[in-house]
Each structure stands twice: as structure tokens, then as C-alpha cells.
Amino acid sequence: MTLTMAPKSIVAAEEQAGARLDRMLAASFGEFSRSRLKALIEAGAVAIDGRTIRDPSHRVNSGAAIVLNVPLPEPAKPAAEAIPLAIVYEDDDIIVIDKPANLVVHPAAGHWTGTLVNALIAHCGDSLSGIGGERRPGIVHRLDKDTSGLMVVAKNDRAHQSLASQFASHGRGDEPFERGYLAFVWGAPERPRGTIDRPIDRSPHARDHMAVREGGREAVTHWEVLERYPGIAEGRRGKAKFGSQSRPNSAPKFAAKSESKSESKSESVASLLACRLETGRTHQIRVHLASIGHPILGDEAYGAGFRTKRALLASHAQIALVDLGRQALHAHILSIKHPLSGEILRFRSELPADLARLHSALVGGRAESSELPSGRG
Predict the structure, then answer these.
(1) Element (H or E) spanning 186, and its range?
(2) What is the model's pLDDT at position 366?
(3) Dihedral sign (CA 223, 225, 227, 232)
(4) In the chain, where does DSSP find H-type helix?
(5) Backbone torsions φ then ψ of 232, nearest 5 degrees
(6) The dihedral formed by the CA atoms of 261, 265, 269 and 274, expressed in degrees to the nearest 10
(7) What is the SS3 assignment for 39?
(8) Which candidate, 149, 188, 89, places its Cα nearest to that of 351?
(9) What's the pLDDT at 172?
(10) What's the DSSP call for residue 227?
(11) What is the DSSP letter of 232?
(12) How far is it, in rounded angstroms, from Cα 137 to Cα 336?
């Protein structure tokens, strides 16, 4: 719940009848700029005669009772919060976290507390790099709130600069850098592997969404099909293709897989892809996979149109997907050069419990929880 100052109330005078709401409030409350009042109106902070008004150009009637609720200012610096962290690796320079789903990385509108940054401040104290600013100390890269998996955080400025350089190049030079993801998607590409090279920019229809757009920033995603899952119409279950390891807690290998004619795109209601990033744009994998007709399972932002496909899954897979409640995307591999020692560090995060249950249901096996990784790979 957003805390507010004491409500400010006025009654529109007769001479104010027909005036725009934002202009009338600006004349009545000189401590706020008109742009600030416009934003408050659009955010639902103004009510007239008990009804919320979000239109700054709304014309006010004489005698109208207007109430303005102004939110309290948010703290400029995040506070330490004792939030448990799954630490994969830590030394004096970096800390590698296995981030769970439903955890926001840094404070922002709507999520000023309970973030990874709040947890890191409690764990690391003042040692975090300050390059990212007060609200993003040590943050070199981000994962979406509902994406799980590996993140590295800088504990000092020198480490931050080195890691930022590695993330900027994304292994295009001689750096032993890799970011690998596992994505459960609707349908299955016809080819065993491929590359999506399509620019990404803000969506013109929703500012919190991204889209493939001409003139956007370069974005390159490499993908490979690891498994295909036929729907219930085929009357048969998907076959795990993890090689000799088929347990839910055994991570798929990034290797080529052959495919037979019987495993065509038309027979696969879903599939498991290994994705490797060559660039790091906001929502890149989600946008790119949706752009080729294979949005990620559970992705309400970019795959809402595929919601009816759920009926093609076996009942236990449908339940697992509903219970998942998020996009089925996991940051599975992270390979970096240590910013000070130069040592090549490679980390692997197995499927978390919710995705392991979804995987087990898709392959037709018994649902099991996966083991969280505890060390370096």
C-alpha cells in the first residue's frame, strides 16, 4: 500500500467552473508544479465528489469537492533488508547469485523495497560498487522479476568496470564470456538451431514493453532445440533428449540434436530451447522468441495470444503451467573472466523447483523438485 501525506481538499468556486482540473489545482496548490499535478492526476491521486479522475483536462463544475492524495517521497537510498540469498560464489570482488523468480533486482516505481539490492546491502554492507548509483549499487546486469537464474554483482568499482566491459562485448572479442538460458516455448522451430538478428526498441503501444522495431538497438539471440513436446492429440508423450541424463535436475547440454520427420513443428505443442545472448537488451529473449512465433510459456506480456494453446497440453502439464505463474525462462549458464585475477569462472544453475515440475510434466514423468546448485561449474 502506498503511504500518502494528509489529503488536500478544496471546493471549486463559482468562478472556477469549466476550468481544467490540472490548471485549477496548480492555482490552488502552489507548492506543486503543473507537470507534477498532471502526473498525480494520471496516477489516480485525485478524486472529484468521491470519483477518481485521471484526465488532467477534465472540466471542473462549481461546488465540486476535490481531494488530492500526494504519495510520501520514496527514500533516495535503499535500506538493508534481511532477504535470503542463494549465493553460488563470493569473494572480495564479486558475488554470484542464483536469483529466484518473483524478486525484483533494484528499487523502482512500485517496488521500492524487497528487492535484490535491498538484500545485497544487508549482506555486503558498504562494499558494493557505487558505479550503478544509489539505487543500483553493484548491479552490472539485470534479470526480469519473473526470470530465475544466475546474476553476478560487483563488490567494488574496479570489478564493476571490468564486468561491465565483458557484458558490453558479450564475448564477441576474446573474452570467455557466455550467458545461456533455458526457455520453454510454444511450438517448436523446424530447424534444430538458428539465430535471431532483429533490432529491439520500446514498443510504440506500451512503454513497459519492448518490440522488434526498425531502427532499434542491435539484438542477437542464438537458439537451439533441446526437446520437443507433442500435444495430447498425438496420443504420445515427449521424449527427453538430455543424452544419458534425463532427470529433471540434470541440465540440458548446449549441443546439437538431430531431429526426425516425426518430430516436425506441427506435432510439437511446446519445446525446450537453449538460448545464448550475443547482446543484452531488455526482454531480449522474450521479444525475439515471440517474434518468430514461439513465445515463452507463461509469458503474459509477449505470449498472451497463445493462452488457448494450453488446452493442447496433458492435464498435469496444464496444472504445472498454471501453478508456474511466470514466464518459463531460466538463466542457466554464466561464464565470465574474474575482473581482478583473470581466472575463467563458469557457473551453472539447474532448473528451479517450479520449472523442474513443468519439465517433468511436459516429458510425462513424475513431478520432482530439482536441486539448487551450490558451487562453481
Answers:
(1) strand 178-186
(2) 33
(3) positive
(4) 21-28, 34-42, 116-124, 157-169, 284-291, 315-324, 353-363
(5) -70, -20
(6) 100
(7) helix
(8) 149
(9) 73
(10) E
(11) G
(12) 20
Distance CA 353, CA 332 (A): 14
Cβ atoms of 187 and 269 within 8 Å: the answer is yes
> Residues 375, 348: contact at Cβ < 8 Å?
no
Options 22, 98, 144, 146, the catalytic residue? 144
Q: Cα–Cα distance between 94 and 108 in angstroms, integer?
A: 23
Residue 377 pLDDT: 40
User: Which residues in the chain show pLDDT less than 70?
Assistant: 1-6, 72-76, 109-111, 130-136, 173-175, 233-266, 365-377
**DSSP-derived secondary structure for 265-330:** GGGEEEEEEEEEESS--TTHHHHHHHHTT-PBTT-TTT-GGGGGGGGGS-HHHHHHHHHH-S--EE
pTM for this prediction = 0.70
Nearest Cα residue to 283 out of 207, 372, 170, 340: 207
Q: What's residue 236's pLDDT?
A: 43
* Residue 218, C-alpha cell as written in the block: 542491435
C-alpha cell at 377: 561449474
Each residue of 228-247: b (16+ CB within 10 Å) or e?
bbbbeeeeeebebbbeeeeb
pLDDT, residue 169, reads: 86
The long-range contacts involving 239-243, CB below 8 angstroms and separated by at least 24 positions, are 239/363, 240/363, 240/365
| Cβ atoms of residues 36 and 30 within 8 Å | no
Beta bridge partners of 201: 211
Nearest one of 28, 63, 58, 29 to 42, comparing CA atoms: 58
| Amino acid (one-letter) located at 260 | S
Cell of 143: 534479470
Q: In the annotation, is 208 catalytic?
A: no
Helix ranges (H only) for 126-227 are 157-169
**pLDDT at 32 (0 to 100):** 81
CA 18 → CA 5, 21, 60, 63, 346, distances in Å?
28, 9, 5, 11, 66
Is there a contact between 366 and 320 (Cβ–Cβ < 8 Å)?
no
